[in-house]
Amino acid sequence: MGSKSKWIGLIILLAVIGAAAVYLLLGGGPQPEPAVLRGYVGGEKIGLLEDEAAQDILDRNYGLTLDYAKAGSLDMVTADHEGRNFLFPSSQTALEYYQQLYGAPDRSQIVFNTPIVLYTHRPILEAFQKEGLVTERDGVYYMDMAGLVAEIEAGTAWADLGLPELYGTVAVNTTDPVRSNSGNMFAGLLANVLCGGVADEDSVEAVLPRLQAIFEKLGYMEASSSDLFDQFLKTGMGAKPMIAGYENQLLEFAVENPEDWEQLKDDIVLIYPTPTVWSSHIYIALDEAGEAGIDALLDEEVQRLAWENHGFRTEVSGTDADENHFGVPHLAAEITQVAAMPSYAAGKWCANVYHSVASGASYEGVYYLSIHENGLVEINDVIVSIDAPLQIAGYCTYLGTTELGMVYQFGLYSGDQ
Q1: Could you give the C-alpha distances from 161 to 151, 173, 198, 242, in angstroms and in order?
Q2: Three-state secondary-structure class, residue 310
Q3: Which residues make Cβ contacts (< 8 Å) with residue 253, sequence separation at least 6?
Q4: pTM of the model
């Protein structure tokens, strides 16, 4: 009898253990406390954050919901952070800007990357191939950027390349580098090409007039990368023969709009500049609660979705049959030829500026500028007559050169203003 009781007890114990295992496997175990993280996000990542599969992973595995507002990479740094847990800009420059204004964040991490690429149409690709400007290696198209820049500066007409149906001269349409990260990065890439290496304060001054001339030929430039890409797809070869954009834009479009892509894929061509530059999407935690977003976004499933559904390069990006997955021909398995962004006017500067006011009076301002390699500007403004220092910080963008010297546009902030 005692032996029989022991066997019955053992069977009951095993049944309880088995039930507990099934309970845990079905998600009945301890769940993370639900939390809502609020922050600012670059518009190019909204597709991922609105992906229901990604939202489910964040909720199920981390108990997180991301509540976000769209903002530019630099605008979000100086925006009101009250009640915000994170920032999610599209470049490391934004992190460096944050560090200059507020010090080191609680935590930061690059979540994924996407390279700058060129988009064009097949007849234009074939014309470039005949000129030796585009070569194909391992099924991937690469543009000789030095050769392309030479054609642009020479004012070569599209007709000279055997494309009489296109009006004007060879050009790459891009977003406004003063307003858009992708345009600014492409301008940096051109500066590197013109300097024959990574542009710095010693080499860039000589090529600035050439860089300005290239952008002056473009006329009106879109303020948004997504707007430029949409116009490229919708207006055809005659309106925008070739543009610079992000690699993930076409990959995401192909996944989300398979029927439209099926109609376009025989014409639209992806070309990688040689070299290119990376756009790094970095998560900045503003407080301890915000740090949870880093681990969640680095989740292997989320990272895979970021690549497979939205085209962002991640640590878990697969390289097998990617072309078949996206249906985008000539997709590079990996990005190998990458250049650093240039440091335009880095160094210490001093400027004497005369100001006139409505009453007819005037005064002299003395400005001491420290321009960092990432474009950050720190200014000590000393009004000579009253010797009153005013600390200002912000970013500058080179606009051109006149007989008076180099001209920069400053986006500056003093405190919250």
Answers
A1: 10, 18, 30, 14
A2: coil
A3: 229, 233, 260, 261
A4: 0.70
> Who wins on pLDDT, 406 or 278?
278
Where b means 16+ CB within 10 Å and e means fewer, 70-98 reads ebbbbebbbeebeebbbbbbbbbbbbbbb
Label residue 342 by pLDDT band (50, 70, 90): low
pLDDT at 219: 76
d(CA 184, CA 171): 16
Closest listed residue to residue 290, CA positions, set 102, 108, 79: 108
State whether residue 215 is helix, strand or coil: helix
The H or E element containing residue 406 is strand 405-413
At 24 the three-state DSSP class reads helix
Tell me the per-residue pLDDT of 218-249, one tens digit each, with 9 for 90 and over: 877 887 788 889 999 999 899 999 999 989 99
Where would I find the beta strands (DSSP E) of 230-291? 242-246, 268-274, 278-285
Find all residues with CB under 8 Å of 24, minimum gap 6, and list them.
none
Q: Could you report the per-residue pLDDT of 167-220, keeping only the tens digit for each? A: 999 999 998 776 667 777 888 888 888 888 777 666 777 788 888 888 888 877
Strand partners for 281: 112
| Per-residue pLDDT reduced to its tens digit, 72-94 | 777 788 889 999 999 998 877 77
For residue 357, give every residue at least 6 positions away whose Cβ sits within 8 Å of its Cβ, in sequence order, or none. 363
pLDDT in tens, 15-55: 444 544 444 444 455 566 789 999 999 878 888 999 999 99
The count of other CB atoms within 10 Å of the CB of residue 349 is 15
Between the alpha carbon of residue 363 and those of residues 121, 300, 350, 354, 380, the distances in Å are 56, 60, 17, 6, 17
The DSSP code for 333 is S
- Best CA proximity match to 217, nearest among 154, 126, 129, 133: 154
Backbone angles phi, psi at 95, to 5 degrees: -65, -45
Q: How far, in Å, CA of 61 to CA of 32, rounded?
A: 7
Q: Specify the amino acid at residue 237.
A: M
- Please give the Cα distance from 142 to 84 (Å, whole number): 42
Q: Is the pLDDT of residue 370 over 50?
A: yes
36 Cβ contact list (under 8 Å, min separation 6): 64, 65, 66, 67
